[in-house]
Amino acid sequence: MSTLRFKVVEEAFKRKPVPASAPGKVTSEYYGKYVFNREQMSKYLSKSTMDTVCEAIDEGTILDRDIADHVAAGMKMWAMEMGATHYTHWFQPLTDGTAEKHDSFIEYINEPGSAVIEEFSGKLLAQQESDASSFPNGGIRNTFEARGYTAWDPSSPAFIVDDTLCIPTVFISYTGESLDYKAPLLKALNAVDRAATDVCRYFDRNVKKVYSYLGWEQEYFLVDEDLCVARPDLLLTGRTLMGHESAKNQQLEDHYFGSIPPRVAEYMRDLEFEAYKYGIPLKTRHNEVAPNQFELAPIFGETNLSVDQNIFVMSLMDRIARKHHFRVILHEKPFAGINGSGKHNNWSLGTNTGIGLFTPGKTPETNLQFITFLVNTLVAVHSHNALLKASIMTAQNAHRLGANEAPPAIISVFLGTQLTAVLEKLENSTSEEAIVVDAKKRMKLGIAHIPEVLLDNTDRNRTSPFAFTGNRFEFRAVGSSANCASAMIALNTAMASQLIQFKKDVDTKTEAGASKEKAIFDTIKAYIKASKAICFDGNGYGDEWKTEAVKRGLDCETSVPLIYDAYLAPETIKMFEKTTVLSEKELHARNEVKWEMYTKKIQIEARVLGDLSMNHIIPVATRYQSFLLDNVYKIKQVYPAEKAEKLSAMDAAIIEDIAVHIGEIKTSVDAMVEARKRANRIDNEREKAIAYHDTVYPYFDKIRYHVDKLELTIDNEMWTLPKYRELLFIR
Ligand code: ADP
Ligand code: MG
Q1: pTM as predicted
Q2: Is residue 284 within 6 Å of ligand 1 at its C-beta?
Q3: Is the CB of 348 under 6 A from ligand 1?
């Protein structure tokens, strides 16, 4: 009899909410208390050091060693007062999550064996050597230069976790190549700043800097920890590889925005308390569409900081969940048949003068600026739609995209009826009609003025992977477990590259004698025509869209390893090199890592699926079969032959049914193992990933189909794995 399943179900059922503990009366009292933010800096740094650091943060200037020494001293004092004994460079390698290696502050005062003192110099703050060979590097690192470096990123504040001062850093190889997400992200943000500032200066000479903003919405599932532990697939791969749909799941739509279950509510409160201590402005929390699925979102912020905060929140979610006897599931598709989890990336650009570049303006000038940035985004997304898809694609997210619940595996932009009409009007106007300069040399836009209601009236097309939502774009195809940096690198670089081109196009026209307004207008008009194929307001889930998208020349590839090829397309390499965000060598290396990660994920899933099938499912199935056989045998002992035949007919049918499923499972598992062996012999990472996708992965559904049929047939008392209804409805 299956004892573990019933034991964990009982345990989970009995659980009471664990009360959250508020760190103070009001949030502002403890908000940011664990972060070496400007407020703390002003207490621990001299005015001149503070000014220099702020300039480095705001303007991206480089800090010299002297300043680093001063900052390190102040940081150490603050950290020690907060009880820290260790420090670490905190970085984001190309795996999931973050990496850190803790060092204590202590050093001998004199010779070895003498007394110790706490030390933390500018050198230790600014740069650390670390063994790059333990992190994926795609072959960039030769064995003779195994060293990698982590280098301080002053634009993201240091923070304290338990007893350790964490310093956000980039991670680069000995020869200077990026081995992480942060280094290229900072370069992409710098590129978009420069390119966008140049364009803004057509409209306002006072603009000195353009910021990229990100507001992420994190979806996740919570599963009771005991139930989770009884599901090896969930524990090891983050998703269920088998499990028949629960009779009730999300059909009644009774979970979305419903009242938050008490255990979960306490979890959310604790999570928020903790996030606030780290200055992470969590703003919203609610139930999502699927049972046991939830979402949280902060107020948006500067992209680099927001990326760091998301990565950190994901680790907090995991820690806090354990206190509440939950496991947080960040996988994009943990359960078949119900919604998966995404992480919408709300993205916008804004000037140092406080203007949102995707916010429709109040004056003709600002409206022309708004249209300029909007249309350039369309061109950027159109030109690089395959790359943007590659930037969000993983083995996990592939389950979500293209399924009937999430954006399709085709990138398109949703603008809504009003904006579409505005662009159409522009496209069909001449510059003389559109731009009128009055007697006082003030510019007027003769085009349909963009109604202010736009902000409140953005149609909610949930099926679009990239939607304009009033003052920002919402990149919805991003997966819940992803590092947002991947999408933000691609998007901001594509935008930077496009804005550089725009400036060229406009300047060519003005040099030929056109007025600035006419040059801008004519360029925009041509862009609207050229990027039409990317705009799609219809139903992104429909099959007609797939046919239509092919006709429009959009990228419709669905195989993950092949989708990654977009990173190595000539236009992509040119784009990244022109903006100096990533070199061709780095792009190749990073793709090696992506293919390798894909292979490993499928490999692990294949192993877990094979193991579970052979040592959980088949043994239970044969036990039940033997129980039925026993019954048939006994019936035949008790009743006359003809009657016994009738009475045991149903048992006999089930016995045969089980035999068929067992046979199919066994054959498929064997074939899958063979396919894996063949794939493992391939050296080339791309080819290997393709082999895993084409020859190993197809067995997953086959095996699952038969396992799920058995789950429906076999005595519930005997079934060992917690069922969907238990995983999804016990909270
Ligand atoms: P939704 O209706 O999609 O749930 P919300 O109003 O909850 O939208 O906002 C989602 C996220 O978008 C939040 O993180 C919010 O701060 C962010 N956001 C709002 N305006 C902007 C903007 N201009 N740029 C970037 N992010 C923004
Ligand atoms: Mg949203």
Answers
A1: 0.95
A2: yes
A3: yes
pLDDT-based confidence at residue 448 (cuts at 50, 70, 90): very low
* Number of structural domains in the chain: 3
- Bridge partners (DSSP) of residue 302 are 213
Q: Give the count of alpha carbons within 13 A of 263, CB side only.
A: 21
Tell whether ligand 1 has an atom less than 6 A from the beta carbon of residue 402.
no
Q: Supply the CATH number for residue 413's domain.
A: 3.30.590.10
Q: Would you state the pLDDT for residue 215?
A: 98
| Sequence-distant (≥ 6) Cβ neighbours of residue 22 within 8 angstroms | 269, 273
Check whether residue 195 and residue 55 sit in a common domain: no
pLDDT at residue 644 is higher than 70? yes
CATH classification at residue 621: 1.20.120.1560
Which of 582, 604, 621 is the C-terminal boundary of a domain?
A: 582
Q: How far is the CA of 283 from the centre of ligand 1 (A)?
A: 10
479, 357: one domain = yes
Give the number of the ligand closest to the Cα of residue 284: 1
Q: Judge if 194 and 170 occupy the same domain.
A: no
Nearest CA to ligand 1 atom 19: 300
| Ligand 1 contacts CB of residue 472 (under 6 A) | yes
CA atoms of 676 and 691, how far apart (whole Å): 8
304-344 per-position pLDDT tens digit: 999 999 999 999 999 999 999 999 999 999 999 999 999 99
Q: Which residues contact 546 (CB under 8 A, 6 or more apart)?
A: 408, 410, 556
Question: Is residue 11 in a domain?
Answer: no
Mean pLDDT in residue range 361-372: 83
Please identify which residue in the block is written with the tokens 């809504």: 416
User: Can you give the residue range of the structural domain that contains 119?
Assistant: 31-180
Same domain, 218 and 160: no
Q: What is the pLDDT of residue 453?
A: 45
Sign, Cα dihedral of 303, 309, 312, 318: negative
Q: Does a structural domain hold residue 439? A: yes
Report the candidate in 633, 643, 507, 524 with the shortest Cα–Cα distance to residue 198. Answer: 507
Both tokens assigned to 440: 């006082």
Q: Do residue 602 and residue 518 come from a single domain?
A: no
Are 127 and 243 found together in one domain? no
The answer to which of 93-107, 313-327, 521-535, 544-558 has the lowest mean pLDDT is 93-107
Instruction: Say whether pLDDT at 615 is over 90.
Output: yes
97 and 149 co-located in one domain? yes
Q: How far is the CA of 301 from the centre of ligand 1 (A)?
A: 10
Q: Does residue 600 belong to any structural domain of this protein?
A: yes
In a domain, 228, yes or no: yes
Domain end call among 147, 180, 213:
180
Average pLDDT, the chain: 92
Q: Express as a percent the part of the chain with pLDDT over 90.
A: 77
CA separation, residue 131 to residues 100, 128, 142, 522, 590 (Å): 12, 10, 12, 53, 18
Q: Give the residue ranges of DSSP H helices in 362-515.
A: 364-383, 385-392, 417-427, 431-434, 484-511
* 340 shares a domain with 202: yes
> Tokens in use for 684?
């080339």
Provide mean pLDDT across the span 676-680.
Answer: 98
Which ligand number lies closest to the CA of residue 458?
1
The CATH number given to whatever domain includes residue 174 is: 3.10.20.70
The answer to whether the CB of 352 falls within 8 A of the CB of 210 is yes
Atom of ligand 1 nearest to the CA of 350: 23
Tokens of 96: 């999931």
Average pLDDT of the residues in 10-29: 94
Which atom belonging to ligand 1 lies closest to the Cα atom of 356? 23
